[in-house]
Write a structure and sequence with these properties.
The complex is a heterodimer.
Chain A (H helix, E strand, L loop, with lengths): L6 E5 L6 H17 L4 E3 L2 H5 L3 H9 L2 E5 L5 H8 L4 E6 H7 L13 H25 L6
Parallel strand pairs in A: 1-2, 1-3, 3-4
Helix pairs in contact in A: 1-6
Chain B lengths: L8 E5 L6 H17 L4 E3 L2 H6 L2 H9 L2 E5 L5 H9 L5 E4 H7 L13 H23 L4 H5 L11
Parallel strand pairs in B: 1-2, 1-3, 3-4
The chains are: A alpha/beta, B alpha/beta.
């Protein structure tokens, strides 16, 4: 019997703009509320400085990255660490489809920002089973 | 006399998502930047810094920096040292909390009361460090470590 797969979720948590906070909030919503049994949250900074636990979790599981700006730091750094990014999510792309949800506040998001985070988490959650099914064939180490 | 750029302190928080102490670093750094020492501090985005953001790395090379980490892994301090230079000062929230007998920091998404006290404590520590650093004259080493920019056409 094959080992049960889960998805690693890595937000950028950028500190310069509210969009970075949205990435962090979306990751919490996904991992704590929507799909706690199917996901594991991985801290980006741990991954980059070579923490073995973090590296092992992203290399053995498909990864979903959530980035707050077009520089896509989380996606770049996860790929650089040798993991496969199954889905890269850009907060700005989702915001373009939800223009009424303008996030404000880096330390504490406003209500539209929290709503945008929930929308992002719901979108990822909707595609999670597909990611798990695609990677069940043993594409990952 | 030429106008020299104002000296500012860069604060680099680990923002670790997995632990509540990571959230403490983020909120304390933002509090210092926006409320306590605006104009005297900047925050450096750690993911951008690690992903190769040249502007952020150059800032950290030539300006004083304080790293603030949530746990003993010290990712922000190690990352800064790997890609730029040794931070001027470092704060580790778990150590600061232990020294002040602050226990049970919890709630990585929404901090509990102990977490909020840890934010206050960390903000105070960061503010003291910023003031100490800005009161000190820049070292000669930091001035001579600037890499000369090659002049086009020069031999």
């Amino acid at each position: 019997m094959s080992e049960r797969r889960i998805v690693s979720v890595i937000p950028c948590s950028g500190i310069g703009k509210a969009f970075g906070t949205v990435s962090r909030e979306a990751a919490y919503e996904l991992c704590e509320n929507l799909r706690p049994a199917d996901t594991t949250l991985v801290a980006l900074s741990k991954l980059v400085v070579g923490d073995q636990d973090a590296q092992s979790r992203v290399r053995t599981n498909p990864a979903v990255t959530i980035d707050g700006c077009k520089l896509m730091c989380a996606s770049k750094l996860v790929k650089h660490s040798g993991a496969t990014v199954a889905r890269e999510v850009s907060v700005l792309d989702v915001f373009r489809r939800h223009k009424d949800l303008k996030p404000e506040g880096i330390a504490e998001l406003n209500d539209p920002g929290k709503e945008l985070a929930r929308a992002i988490a719901a979108e990822i959650s909707g595609g999670l089973d597909e990611i798990l099914a695609e990677t069940a064939g043993g594409q990952h180490a | 006399m030429p106008d020299l750029p104002e000296r500012k302190v860069g604060i680099i928080a680990c923002s670790g998502e997995e632990l509540a102490v990571g959230t403490v670093t983020r909120l304390a750094a933002l509090k210092v930047l926006h409320e306590v020492r605006p104009g005297k501090t900047v925050t450096i985005c750690l993911p951008l810094f690690l992903a190769g953001g040249e502007g952020d790395r150059a800032f950290a090379r030539f300006h004083p920096t304080i790293t603030v980490d949530g746990c003993e892994l010290r990712c922000a301090a190690r990352g800064t040292e790997m890609y730029s230079g040794k931070p001027t000062a470092s704060v580790v929230v778990s150590e600061l909390a232990a020294k002040n007998s602050l226990e049970h920091i919890d709630g990585r998404r929404r901090l509990n009361e102990a977490g909020q006290k840890a934010v206050e404590l960390t903000t105070e520590r960061l503010t003291n460090l910023v003031d100490q650093i800005l009161a000190t004259k820049p070292s000669a080493e930091s001035l001579i470590s600037i890499t000369p920019v090659p002049v086009k056409g020069a031999r």
